[in-house]
Design brief:
By secondary structure, the chain is of the alpha+beta class. The protein has two domains: 211 residues, Multidrug efflux transporter AcrB transmembrane fold; 88 residues, 2-Layer Sandwich (Alpha-Beta Plaits). The protein is 66% helix and 7% strand. About 2% of the residues have low confidence.
């Protein structure tokens, strides 16, 4: 069975538009609530991050009951900590607490308070205690640097594709990349609203990785389109005469030629990311999730959006 991307183009583009629209709603709500399109961590806002883990008495099976995060959040909120977020770590036997910027005595007070609050669950492991402070100047520099890195990467991709192919190829490949970034950002906007998930500097790294992966898939399909356009025909009439294909037919033919490779490549990339997501630590879990969502979105946009938009544009040029 052959995939006809042109015939069902409104379905494929409509699905992308729906996902992006939902994501933009989430980012708007995040902007209203947090002053930022996504829920930012202390990496971008500045503040104090405290990581604590409890001692496991009988590893690895019997480490004790997991920490009740809701109860801990209520206890911390009663102390009037600013920008307070609490996340689970170490399979429920650890916590990561982020607040506004605290002076050294206040950080020590917070650590002592957490030690008392966590006593019903066990003893804090001093070897796994970590306190980080990110000042506002450093956080602003991280945000500017991450945004600049993403912008430079996109411009570099546009320049590369313009040289390798043609300007219209580059434009629609870039639109596919923007689609991927918006899909991932929209997912994390809703995760921030509903699950308290924050984005940090690793999220920028994930977006850059997604851009590189997605453009590679798009280049392969575009390369096949360019090569097939050089062919005198892609088939023949019953009498044996070659049939000159339309641009839409070339697009469909090229997508089907590369479809198996695109799917297999994505699947082999997703499997290790699933392993990291399910069995990795708290630090890498959401990084792996961002890559997972981005790689799936990137494969979709390369197969459907980038090719459909290119065919639409070439069709308009032909009519004009």
């Amino acid at each position: 069975m052959k995939l006809d991307v042109i015939k069902y183009r409104y379905l494929y583009l409509g699905l992308s538009a729906l996902v992006i629209a939902l994501g933009l709603v989430g980012m708007f709500l995040c902007g209203q609530r947090f002053g930022f399109p996504l829920r930012p961590s202390v990496d971008f806002t500045g503040g104090t991050r405290l990581s604590l883990s409890l001692v496991c008495a009988n590893p690895p099976k019997d480490c004790g009951q997991p920490i009740d995060l809701e109860k801990l959040r209520a206890q911390l909120a009663s102390q009037n900590y600013e920008k307070l977020t609490v996340q689970a770590a170490e399979e429920g036997r650890g916590v990561v607490v982020q607040t506004g910027d605290l002076a050294p005595p206040d950080r020590q007070k917070l650590e002592q308070f957490l030690g008392e609050a966590l006593k019903p669950y066990g003893t804090i492991d001093p070897n796994k205690t970590q306190i980080d402070r990110v000042g506002p100047l450093i956080s602003q520099e991280l945000l500017r640097g991450g945004s600049l890195a993403l912008a430079v990467a996109l411009l570099g991709i546009v320049a590369y594709l313009s040289v390798r192919f043609q300007p219209d190829y580059a434009v629609f490949a870039t639109l596919a990349l923007v689609h991927d970034v918006l899909v991932v950002s929209g997912v994390f906007a809703w995760l921030g609203l509903l699950g308290g998930v924050e984005v940090d500097s690793l999220f920028i790294v994930a977006l850059l990785t997604i851009a590189g992966y997605s453009v590679n898939d798009t280049v392969i399909i575009y390369d096949r389109i360019r090569e097939n356009l050089k062919q005198p025909s892609l088939g023949a009439t019953p009498s044996g005469e070659p049939v000159e294909p339309t641009f839409n037919q070339v697009v469909n033919f090229s997508v089907n030629q590369t479809l198996t490779r695109s799917i297999n490549t994505t699947l082999t990339t997703i499997l290790p990311l699933l392993a990291v997501l399910l069995f990795g630590g708290a630090t890498l879990k959401f990084f792996a999730l961002a890559l997972l969502v981005g790689f799936i979105a990137g494969t979709y946009s390369s197969i459907f959006n980038a090719t459909i938009l290119l065919a639409w544009w070439r069709g308009r040029q032909a009519v004009a």
